[in-house]
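Researcher: Please translate sequence to structure tokens.
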Amino acid sequence: KIMSFCETKGVKSLDLEPAFRRHAGESLTVNRFDSHPNERAQRIAADAIRDGLLSDLMQGNTASK
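Model: Translation complete:
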């Protein structure tokens, strides 16, 4: 629903679910008692944001990769 809303309003957005789906077999939480994203999950999200949401800003900026 959120992605549809953003699309109809022209708000640039990114669904991270496909990026995380590719890593479904990995442990992406801090530990079994803390379900916050671990360092690996943060990197997956950051890479997806860089490549999908910020790609127009990153063009010509190879230092960030």
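Researcher: Any highlights?
Model: The beta strands are 29-31, 34-37.
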